[in-house]
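Q: 2-hydroxyacid dehydrogenase, please. Structure only.
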Amino acid sequence: MRKIVILDGISMGNVDFSLLNSLGEVTYYDLTEDNEVTSRIQDANVILTNKVELNKDNLSNAKSLELICEMATGFNNIDIEYAKEKGIAVTNVAGYSTNSVAQHTFATLLHLYNEIAYYDDYVKSGNYAKSPIFTHIDREFNDISGKTWGIIGLGAIGRKVAAIATAFGAEVQYYSASGNNNNADYTKVELDELLSTSDIISIHAPLNDKTLGLINYENLKKMKKSSVLVNMGRGPIVKEEDLAKALDEGLIKGAALDVFVSEPIGKDSPLLQIKNKDRLVATPHIAWASVEAREKLFGYLIENIEAFYKGEKKNRIV
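A: Structure for 2-hydroxyacid dehydrogenase:
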């Protein structure tokens, strides 16, 4: 019977891993440290990993390995060249989280844009109960309608966000870091124009040489002081120390982040030290993880294993 090893199952939450039992003998680990990988995969035919690094050093001991299943879209934690050299198939899952990430984009944006934390606290603190009038509008907030929404990365998620932003009444424009994306539905602009004219900027781009450190202090200075930055792409696209400085200096109104340079966020991250904490909404890389998205992801993982052993090329990277 083929042996299936799950290296960091806890990252998937409460999905039903027992569904894999019909495909082989399953060994499950919540988490796997770097020094534990070699021994845990040495007899595996199939490995499931999310963030555990699989490199030449640990893979070389897995003599029976046939398939590596990335439990995500990004596969930078896998040594693809070594897998190709050794004839080890690698699969990933794309497109499962589009709805979840788009929804989280608006959840965090609206939390910040509508000053929800402040007004929620105003009511729960008892101050509203003491008020002589029916309302309290000490913190200004704005409509999305009529604003310009700039998107960096107009892939599947970016397009979903663009459609929702349009439904809100925003004018959508986008910047393509690669220069290869041309979408007639929205206005394509250069980065400087997007930064200087957008009221809301959301990032849905992959991390590569063209996006690494793209949002730095110089580019943050080009943004409107009333603007909001949302990063749902990859943490290193935004220079965290520069963003913290920009928030403290009031260069932009606020930022909403679900991804960080280091995950979990570093204890010494400048984002945890900002003076005006209400300018920042931060969530622990959960945009991808709605119940429905994780169920879809796990279903695709099972399909990938089944397809491999049927000789099909579905979702194959290698």
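A: Brief note, in case it's useful. Residues 291-309 form the longest helix (19 residues).
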